[in-house]
Amino acid sequence: MQKKFTKYLSLCMLVAFIIIVCIVFAFQTALSRSNQKAVALEKLKTIKTTLIENDNEIKKIKQDFGEEALIKAKTLSYIISKDTQLLYSVDFMQNIADLLNVSEVHITDENGVLLWGNIPEYYGLNFNDGAQTQAFLPILTNSSFQLAQEPQPNQATGKMFQYIGVSRLDSPGIVQVGVEPEKLNTALANNTIEKALSNIEYGISGYVFAVDTNTGIMAAGTNGEQMTYQQYGIPDNIISETNHSGSTFGINKILNQKVYVVTEKYENYIIGLAMPTKELYRSRTNQVITIMFICLIVFIILILVINFFIQNYVVLGIQQIIEKLKQITSGNLDVEVDIHTNQEFHDLSININQMVASIKQNIQQSELLMQKQEGVVNQVKQAAVSLSDTTTQTFQTSQAIVQDTITQTQYVNTLLTDMENLLEKSKESEDISNIVAQNSADMIEGMKQTSEDMEQMMNSIHSMLQTTEKIKNIINEIDSISQSTNMLSLNASIEAARAGAAGKGFAVVATQIGTLAGESATASKSTNDLITATLDAIKDGETFARKANDEFIQVIQHTTKSQEAISQLIHIFKQQADMVQNATEGINRISNLIQNTVNIVEQSKVTSQKLSEQSEMLKNIVT
Predict the structure, then answer these.
(1) Could you report the per-residue pLDDT of 475-500, keeping only the tens digit for each?
(2) Which of 133, 87, 85, 86 is nearest to 112 (CA)?
(3) How far apart are the C-alpha atoms of 76 and 146, rounded to whole Å?
(4) How would you classify the pairing of strands 104-108 and 174-179?
(5) What are the CA-CA distances from residue 22 to residues 29, 50, 294, 616 (Å)?
(6) Torsions phi, psi of 172, nearest 5?
(7) 275: Cβ contacts below 8 Å, ≥ 6 apart
(8) What is the pLDDT of residues 348-390, one digit of tens each?
(9) CA-to-CA distance for 367 and 324, rounded, in angstroms?
C-alpha cells in the first residue's frame, strides 16, 4: 500500500512540477518581453531626445552663424560707404574679406549686376539670372531687407556656402558676403542619424537600425554600407505596421536570426532596436532552471516527509489492526483492539471492538434460537399430521362444492337467457310507447292550432255581430227618416190642396216623395228583418262556436292527460328495462362469481393435493 501511495504521490508531484515549470516558463517569457520592451522604449526615448537636442543645437548654430555673417556684411557696407574708391581695389577687397574672416565679398550696382569684390571672375554676374541670387533682389527696392540663406552648394565650385546680403549705405545696391560654414558643416556631419545611433548600446548582442521611409534605404546600422531594408533583412510587415501605427514590437526574423524588435517612427525615419532571442531569454532560462531545482528539492523533501508520516501513523496502525483481525477470524473473540497512533485508528479500534461484541451477542442469541427451534420442530410435526387430515377433508368438500357450483351455473345461464328475452320485449314496448307518445304530441299540437283557429273565428263572428248591430242602427235611422219624410209629404199634400190649382205641381212632388218614403220604409223594414234574422243567426253561430271551442279545449286537456299517462308509462317501461338490464348484469356478475368460485375450488383442490403432498414431505423431514 505504501509503495502504491508513494508511486501515486510521486506521479502527482511530477504533474505539479511540470505545471509549475510551464507556468514559470510562460511567466518568465512574458516578463522578459515586457522588461525588454520597457528597456527598448526607454532607449528609443533617449535616441529621440538626442536627435532633438542635436537638431536644436544645429538650429542655434545656424542662427548664430547667420547673425554673425549679417554683422560682417553690414560692416563691409559701412566701410564702402566711407570710401567708395576702395571698391576698385581687388587687394583691398581681399584684405577686408580676410579681416572679416569670410571667403567671398560681392557688391552690385543699382541694377543688381556684380561689379566689385575679391573675385574678379564673378564681375558682370547679374543677380537676375540665377535662382540662388534672385532671392537678394528685394534689397534693391527695400534698403531694410536683409537675407541670410541656408547653407547650400555654390553654383560654380560646388562647395557648401552660406550667402548673406544687406543693402549698400552709399547708393542702391547689394552687399553680399559668402562664408564657408566649417563649424556648421562639422555639426551637420556629427548630427547624422547614423552618428547619433552609433554610440547607442543595446545589450550584449543587440543592435540599433534606422530606415529612411522616403527611400527605403538603411540610414543606420550598416557600418556605412548603403543598402535597402529588404537587403538588410527587415520584413516588410515591420515597416508597414510602424508607418501605420507609429510603433511595433514582437518577435521577428532579421538576417536569418530570431530577434525581439521594437520600432518607432521619428520624422521620416523608422528607428528600431533588435535583441536576439537567445540573449532576451537568457534570464528566463536561468530563472526556470533555478525554480526547477528548488521545486525538485521541495518535492523530494515532501515525499520523504509524507512517507515518514504514512509509515509511522498509517502503515503501522494498519498492520496492528490486521494482526488483531487475524486473531478474531481464527475464532478468538476475546481479543481487544486498542491502537492510538491517531484519532482515526482509535475510532476504528472502538468500532472493531463493538463489532466483536455484537458477534458474540449474536452467537448467544443463535444458541437460544436453536433450542427454541427444537420445540418448534416438534410442533410442526404435530401440525403436519393435523394438516394432512384437514387437507383430505378439504379436498372432498371442494369436490362437492364444484358439483353444486356447476348445477348453479346451469340454472343461472337459463335465468340469464330468460332475462335477456324479457329485456328485448321491454325495449320493443318502450319503442312502441315512444311512437304513441310522439303521435299524441303531434295530435295535441294540431288540436292547439285548431283551437287557435276557432278562437280567431269567434273573434271574426263577434266583429260581424258588432258590424250588423251598426247596420241595424243605420237602417232604423233610415226608417225614422222615411217616416219623417212621409209626414212631410202628407203635410205638403195638405198644403198643396189648400193652394188649389197653384199647388198642383207641388202636390205631385209631394205625392212622389210620399211614395218614395213609403217604398223606403218598406225596404228598410225588409232590410231590418233580414239583418235581424242574420244577427240572430250570427249569435247562434257564436254560441255554437264558443260551445265547440270549450268542448275542444276539454278534448285537448283529456288528450294532454293521456299523453302524460303515456309518458309515465314510457318512464315505467324504461325503469323496467333498466331493472331488467341491471338484473341481467347482476346475473352475469353472479355467473362470473360462480365461475370464479369454480376456479378457486379447482385451485383449492390442486392446492389441497400439493398441501397433502407437502405435509407428507414435512412429516418425513421431521421424522
Answers:
(1) 677 667 767 766 766 776 777 677 76
(2) 133
(3) 14
(4) antiparallel
(5) 10, 42, 15, 83
(6) -60, 135
(7) 36, 40, 202, 203, 205, 206, 259, 260, 261
(8) 777 777 777 777 777 777 677 767 766 655 665 665 556 556 5
(9) 26
Interatomic CA distance for residues 87 and 419, integer angstroms: 167
What letter does residue 313 receive in the DSSP assignment? I
By CB atoms closer than 10 A (0-12, 13-18, 19+), residue 218 is buried
CA distance 397 to 184: 146
Predicted pLDDT at 164: 93
Distance CA 421, CA 209 (A): 123
Residue 292's CB is within 10 A of a number of other CB atoms, namely 16
Cβ burial, residue 552 (10 Å; 0-12/13-18/19+): middle
User: CA separation (Å) from 461 to 76, 467, 506?
Assistant: 161, 10, 49
pLDDT at residue number 202? 77
Q: Is 510 exposed, middle or buried (0-12, 13-18, 19+ CB in 10 A)?
A: buried
Helix (H, G, I), strand (E, B) or coil at 266: strand
For domain 386-620, say whether CATH 1.10.468.10 is its number.
no
**Do the Cβ atoms of 242 and 251 come closer than 8 Å?**
no
Contact 32, 281 (CB under 8 A): yes
DSSP β-bridge partners for residue 108: 114
Contact 465, 532 (CB under 8 A): no
Amino acid symbol at 415: L
- For residue 277 the three cell numbers come to 532571442
74 CB-near residues (< 8 Å, 6+ apart): 166, 175
- Provide the β-strand partners of residue 228: 217
Give 102's contacts (C-beta < 8 A, 6+ positions apart). 69, 72, 177, 178, 179
Three-state DSSP state, 155: coil
Contact 294, 300 (CB under 8 A): no
| pLDDT tens-digit readout, 506-533 | 566 667 666 766 766 676 677 667 667 7
Half-sphere exposure of 180 (CA within 13 A, CB side): 10
- Whether 166 and 78 have beta carbons less than 8 Å apart is answered as no
147 backbone dihedrals φ, ψ, rounded to 5°:
-145, 130
Asked whether residue 502 carries a pLDDT value surpassing 70, the answer given is no
* pTM of the predicted protein model: 0.39
Nearest 10 degrees: Cα torsion 136, 139, 141, 145 = 120
Q: What is the pLDDT of residues 426-435, one digit of tens each?
A: 666 567 656 7
Give the DSSP per-residue string, 204-238. Answer: TT-EEEEEETTT-BEEESSTT---BHHHHT--HHH
Element (H, E) at 416: helix 343-499
Percent of the chain with pLDDT over 70: 62
Beta carbons within 10 angstroms of residue 547's beta carbon: 10
Compute the residue count for the chain: 623
**Domain layout of the chain by residue ranges:** 341-373, 386-620
* Interacting residues of 449 by C-beta distance below 8 A, sequence separation 6+: none
Among 444, 429, 436, which residue's Cα sits nearest to residue 572? 429
Q: How many CB atoms lie within 10 A of CB 8?
A: 10
Task: Give the pLDDT confidence score for residue 175 in this predicted structure.
Answer: 95
Residue 394: Cβ-neighbour burial (10 angstroms; 0-12, 13-18, 19+) = middle
Q: Give the C-alpha distances (Å, rounded to integers) separating 16 from 20, 265, 307, 310.
A: 6, 45, 18, 21
Q: Angle CA(295)–CA(301)–CA(306) in degrees, nearest 5?
A: 120
